[in-house]
Design brief:
The protein is an alpha/beta fold. The chain has helices at 43-55, 117-124, 139-151, 166-181, 193-199, 208-212, 232-241, 264-272, 290-295, and strands at residues 2-8, 15-19, 30-31, 34-36, 58-71, 76-88, 99-102, 128-131, 156-159, 186-189, 203-206, 224-229, 245-248, 279-282, 300-303. A hairpin with a 4-residue loop joins strand 5 (58-71) and strand 6.
């Protein structure tokens, strides 16, 4: 079943959810508004028709957010999710369905169909994922650079320091967390899940080797679990483990890995379509490439050199 799904946001940043009738499939759960495409109907036509019928508003512009393929025991669905950028009218439940406006951070507290969960992750994530550089030997300069990036608006950061002694890594991670919390930014540690838990980090970023050694999610739902992937096998395993998002690399050629053949944007898009989690493009990325990554179905870009 091909379904057009709308993410509608108000001027306070809240997202509109509607409650499914008790007698239908997945009844009683909260969901994003939308409905299935009719025969011969385009996605845009279905999106506008469904939202007008359900909520009484007119969509004027929209942009893709994520595509989700999900198999329930009784049916399979393809959710084509678009963020509504402009609309006119005031939403109301024209079919008698209850509506509620919810901040992205509060969405995990609302029971939803399993197919909608990746949408919640996509809404809570920014379009740029900053990975720290290797200049961590000078602590003062390193912290100053982090502060600059936070001031510029970076809100999702991976602390990566290969080769750093574990005790020093933990100490610096705690200081970074203090800076991040002061700006509502989130810090993931490229380390072990245990260390992320002990330090109170917002989550862990797993290497592909760590990912492939796991058979279940290593942290609770309150913390992010991200992973590095390079091929379809790793992407599928990430989904089995239950990660919240992944980075896929290398999309373009990079100076740090001159002998590695890049995926290219076409292959990146093909691989993104195989999983139901937000995917960041990594490798040769610059801020101006966010729109290209999103056009290919990605969440955005991840970078060291281009963002750090």
């Amino acid at each position: 079943m091909h379904v057009a799904v709308a993410v509608i946001q108000d001027d306070r940043g809240r997202i509109l959810l509607s409650r499914r009738a008790d007698h239908v499939h997945q009844g009683g759960l909260w969901e994003f508004p939308g409905g299935k495409l009719k025969s011969g109907e385009t996605l845009e036509q279905a999106l506008k028709r469904e939202i007008r019928e359900e909520l009484g508003i007119d969509i004027h512009s929209h942009a893709p957010l994520i595509r989700v393929n999900h198999r329930y025991p009784e049916r399979s669905v393809l959710l084509d999710v678009h963020r509504i950028t402009t609309f006119s009218g005031i939403p109301c439940g024209r079919e008698g369905q209850p509506l509620v406006w919810v901040t992205p951070e509060m969405m995990p507290h609302y029971p939803m169909p399993a197919a909608d969960r990746p949408i919640v992750s996509a809404l809570r994530l920014p379009d740029c994922y900053l990975i720290t550089g290797s200049d961590f030997s000078n602590k003062v300069d390193f912290l100053r650079r982090i502060q600059q990036r936070l001031t510029e608006g970076r809100r999702l950061i991976q602390f990566r320091a290969p080769g750093m002694e574990p005790r020093a890594f933990s100490q610096l991670a705690v200081e970074l967390l203090q800076l991040c919390r002061s700006t509502d930014a989130q810090l993931l540690l490229n380390s072990t899940p245990e260390l992320a838990r002990i330090c109170g980090a917002h989550g862990v970023h797993l290497t592909s080797r760590q990912l492939m050694s796991l058979d279940k999610r290593p942290l609770s739902a309150e913390q992010w679990v991200a992973a590095s992937c390079h091929n379809e096998t790793e992407l599928r395993h990430a989904q089995v483990v239950g990660v919240d998002f992944v980075v896929l690399s290398p999309v373009l050629a990079t100076a740090s890995h001159p002998g590695v053949k890049p995926l290219g944007w076409r292959r990146f898009q093909e691989l993104v379509d195989t999983v139901n989690v937000p995917v960041y493009a990594l490798g040769g990325m610059l801020p101006g490439m966010v729109s290209r990554a999103r056009e290919c179905g990605g969440q955005g870009i991840a970078a060291i050199r281009g963002l750090w």
